[in-house]
Amino acid sequence: MKYEEAKKIIQEKNLTHYKWFEDPNYEPNVVGINKNGDEYEVYVTSERGTPSGIKQFKTEEEALDNFISRVESLNRLIKKRPNSFW
Question: For residues 30 and 15, is the Cβ–Cβ distance under 8 A?
């Protein structure tokens, strides 16, 4: 997936709870993507804001595929169980 395509999916599906190429700031229950040197990292944060589930990718396309999949999953889960996250 390309950068523009990922942004379009986020906007069209009105996805929330993500960090887009920002450093983790201990915000709870988000999915994030970052570039770290020559690699890309996709992570989630816990209810306490601790990054975990960090996966590293060599290409932006692979990282964006994983990132969008995780953001969509988190958004579905939050809609299904909104009281479980706050």
Answer: no
